[in-house]
Each structure stands twice: as structure tokens, then as C-alpha cells.
Amino acid sequence: MLDRIKAMRLREEGTTVRVTSAALPRRILFNCQFAWEFGYVEYALATALRLRGHDVRMIICGAGLDYCELETRHNRRPTCEVCVQRMLRRMDAFGLPYQVMGQFLTGEDFDYARNVSQRMEVAQLKELVEAGVPVGKLAFLDQFHFFHGYPFEITGEMEEIFRKCIASTILFTRAAHRLHDDYRPDMVCSVNGKFAQWAPFVQAARQRGLPYCTWEDLRIRTGAVTFASNGIGHEVPVDDIWEQQLRKPFSEESRHRIRDHFRLWARGAITPWRYYGEDAIDGPEQVRQALALRPGVPIVSLFPNLCWDSTSVGFESAFENMYDWVANVVAYARRRPDWDFVIRAHPGEGKLPLEYRSTTPVGEFVRDRCGPVPPNVKLIEGDSPLSSYTLGEMSKVVMTYTSTLGIEFALRGIRPWAAARALYGRKGFTVDLVSPQHMFDLLDRNQLDNRLTPEQIESAERFAHMFRFRKVFSFPRLDDSGNFNPPSWRFFAPGGNDVMDRLCTAFLNHDPFLDIDARQD
Predict the structure, then answer these.
(1) Across 34-137, where does the E strand assignment appear?
(2) Strands (E), 85-185
(3) How far apart are CA 456 and CA 430, in angstroms?
(4) What domains can be seen in the chain, in order of their start residue?
(5) Contact call for residues 425 and 418 (beta carbons, < 8 A)
(6) Residue 103: in which H helix or E strand, if any?
(7) Does pTM top 0.90 for this prediction?
(8) What pLDDT, in 10s, does the model give residues 202-252?
(9) In a designed cystine with 268, which of 55, 87, 274, 445 is the match (CB 3.0 to 4.6 A)?
């Protein structure tokens, strides 16, 4: 594939007109780091921007760091030499200018970073800041990625990885600042922007008052990606445009489109993984009997996320973390024996491939860390065939953390209580919890009317449609396995592809990246 792209470039580059942008040519720094399936998104975007007269520089790692996001508990990382060669082949295929991050680090930097990471106590390291970047918080977030579980106690193997990550994040930070000083970009682009290998470049841009863009793959459909200007892509930031969008017409076609989408989603027909099979238990009476729920007793249901997923990590608001939320509800249940509480673990805990399953399952957490489980607290494990949708319909209160189930329940007329900073929160159809006491007060007042009005349901439809069809788009000619098949070099040039044209315009103008491909289903 890379040979074909290079041959296409060499054959057609001279005949493809390079357009000088009406705006002053900009210097754009792309934080690429290493090769992965969706890396072609930024190679294609950088190529398209070059053909529009802008100066780009791609940054690849090559630093020989102690910690790298390519490695997890289940996957070994390639050697740095192999990793760099992979990136060099990609840069050569697209003809992109690049620099190796490792060239901006010295032996003294490595000695300093390793010394700091080894001599300080874990509690101090978690609060460590380097050049204005919270390296301790970033390294903590990366423990979710490496272990696929919550880092309750950073000891043993987890402490070893955490300290390595601290050292590497210090080095990422130093290199990011030096690359900024060397290249002096006008803009910065990075995948993710939230974790240790990516955030320092974004935060260095913030400190300098520079615009930045982050993006992320979202496995909603083939090649699905989302972008954000001056925000974190996978958090799908739309708060600043929500009120404006809410005033625009919303067609019946759009309503049918989003409802058809989520009907298929609920059946597992278009999800990345299928969580419910033919054995799904979705009859209310069957669910009631399976859980020994008492007739006539109000049900409060909790739907936690997969704890390590990037759409749940770092969204804390009312609670310290997802497990703190669960623990507070279990504690509350002890003094409310007149209600039944159901904690439904994410189906991915039991049904994803082994390397993606949570190492800190919610049910196990409740049994091990919340004392004797009260008889009115029912636990549903991740591999259970009991339907989350049926349970939600039966419940008087439905609580989510940041799970997509929150928007699905809203589409069904059920108001979710959001225990974290869910992307669908604060849109007029959720209860947004601000503290444990806020949750207790609502429950104490028997705030059990969870039905939405038709107007609120329409707000949920509008948001769901914006999220699934207007903010997220399929990157042209790219699939989830990293197969990228541009038809010609003109694909990247102005007028060569409508999606690439709109993407470049939104990128350069710091637009909200809406309707990049309005034709998608």
C-alpha cells in the first residue's frame, strides 16, 4: 500500500497544482509519534494542507523511552528501531517533512527524568508538574491504558510502570517545548491530546496561546473519526455551539435516521462488538425473577462504563472516579431497604476479547471493597444476558457515568442521571449530579419522575444526531484495519475530494467540524 502511494505521488506530484492559500501560509506541527491503523488520517491531512500552500512538520518519537503507549499488559512494543523505520516508510510514501523527537533530548534529560521518577514517593509523583504540564496526572491516566483497570493502589508492577511513565512524560514534555521553540508553529495537531504521549504537545500550545486541534478514531462505523478545535476530540465538545444548533430546524428525516441507527445499535447489528446474542433476556418479568426484585418496590439502576475506555477516563465531576460513585450508591442503599438497587456491569467486561476486558470488574469491586453487599443491591456481571434496555425501562432512576446508554435511554423518554461529565450532559434532558450529597438529596426527596417531555426527547434526538452523524465522519478511503486507498494524488489537492476540502477548511478556520461528510448514513 505504501509503495503504491509513493509511486502515485512520484508519478502525479508534478502535475498536481499546488495552491497558495489566500491566508498566510501556516506552520503546522503534527504530533504523530508512532505507526498505527488510523495514522493515515493525519498523513492525508498534512499532505492536503501542503498542497494548499502550508508548511507542515511531522514529529515521530524515536526517543528510546522507558514507557510507550504501544505497550500494554497484553502487548509488547516493537523496538524503537523497528518503530522508527515504520514511520520513515510512511513519511517517505507521502513525501512529508519530519523530525525525530529523540533528537531534542539529551543524556542529561534522561538522567533527570529517571532520577525524579525513582526518588520521589508515589503520592508526590501523582501531583508532579513539569514546565506547566501535569505529568503526574497524565502518567496516572496512562495506567488505565496499560492495565485496562483502575489503579486503586500503585504498588508492585503498577508502580514500576507508573514510574517509567512519569520519566517518559517528563521527556515528552521537554521535547514538546523544544520542538515548539525550534519550529515555532502557528498550529498544532495531535491525536488524542489527553494522555501522556500526546497531551504535552497540546499543553505546550495552550501555554503559548496557539490554536490546536485534536482528533480520535471512534469505532461507530468504518473509518469513523472526530475532530475538535481547541478541545479533546473524543470528548466531542459541542457545548459552545449547542444553543445555536438547538434553534435550527430538525427534520423528520434526521429524526428517523438517528432512531434507525440506535435501533440497530441496540441489537448489536452495527456495534464494534456484539454484546447480546440470541440468549438475551429482555422480558421484564424474566429480568425481575432473575434478580429477585421485589414487586412494587422502586428500582434504581446503575450502568457503569468500561473503566479503562478513553470515553470514561478523565471525565470525573461529582465523584472521584467511577468506583467512588458505585461505592456511594451501595452505602446509600444500606439505609434505603425500601428500594432495590441494581448495578449492571458493562457487557464488555465479560464479552470483549481477553486483552480488552477490565481487570477491575465492577461486581468484584463491590464484593471486595464495599463490605457485605446489602440484600437490596443486585449485581449483574458483564457476561450476563440480562438486557440493560429492559432494566432501564423498569427502573424509577437510571444512572450512568458517561456511557452511551445515557443517550439511548433519553431517546426512549427516560431521563438519565449523569454521574460524570458525560458528553450528552447539560443539554436539558439529564440530571447532572454535582456531588455525592446532591445525589443523596435527590434520592431522599424521592425524585423518581424520570420521564422526559416530547421537547426534551427532541433535544436528545438533536444531540444524538449531531454526535453520530454531524461530528463523527468516516474518513474517506480508510477502513478500521488501516487500509488506505486514495484513488490518485489529486485526492489530496483542492477540489480532489469534498470531505478533504471541508476538513482542511474547518481545520484552518478553527471551525467546530460539523457536517464534514453530510452524506453519511
Answers:
(1) 55-60, 98-100
(2) 98-100
(3) 9
(4) 2-8+26-223+475-509 (3.40.50), 244-469 (3.40.50.2000)
(5) yes
(6) none
(7) yes
(8) 999 999 999 999 999 988 889 999 999 999 998 988 999 999 999 999 999
(9) 274
